Amino acid sequence: MESVIRVIDAINYRVGRTIMWLTVALAIVQFVVVILRYVFAIGFIPMQESIWYMNGILFMTGAGFTLLADGHVRVDVLYREISHRNRAWVDLIGTLVFLVPVCLATLYLSWSYVLNSWRVFEGSTETSGIQGIFLLKTFIWVFAFLVVIQGIANALRAVRYLRDGHGHYTPAGISGGATG
């Protein structure tokens, strides 16, 4: 169980630490687009579309890392007041009842959507746009995969705490040192 948790945490940690650099590229490209458009009155469609691509890729691939870091929004009104044992139960049940089924449904429901995009090599409706929408849509699968495996690691972490029952329960792997 420990090795599975470590491997999954390491995958999402490395993906997250790598993809975070896309934020820098996104900011630079956005700055250049604004300067070109408002200072020089030049519209460059591929550069403008690349902002959408980078934003989509950033959020889709970063979701697993965010789950690893326990950074997703949650209603902490009750969660922060309950015992560590009950937190582990809430996380385990939430993962098994909500997170895993939603990710699997996302994979299932997007399957033909993504495959059809690949079949026609779907691209931009703009003539000079980026002709890679099919690649961007593939990140729906990447998102679901990275989040579901991190959910499994977090569920295993909760099971480990419930089984051993000692110490401080931490749902995330990063706060425990990147590999939980």
Describe the structure in your own words:
With 180 residues, the protein is mostly helical. The protein has one domain (2-164). It is 73% helix and 0% strand. The protein has helices spanning 2-19, 21-38, 45-68, 76-79, 84-119, 133-164. The termini are close together.
Shape: elongated
Give the DSSP E fraction (strand runs of 2 or more residues). Answer: under 5%
- Order of H and E elements: HHHHHH
Strand count, sense and barrel status of the largest sheet are: none
What are the low-pLDDT stretches, counting only 5+ consecutive residues below 50? 176-180
Instruction: Count up the domains.
Output: 1
Q: Structural class, judged by helices and strands?
A: mainly alpha
**What Rg, in angstroms, do the CA atoms define?**
20 Å
Question: Short description, anyone?
Answer:
By secondary structure, the chain is mainly alpha-helical.
Record keyword descriptors for this entry.
disordered C terminus, mainly alpha, 180 residues
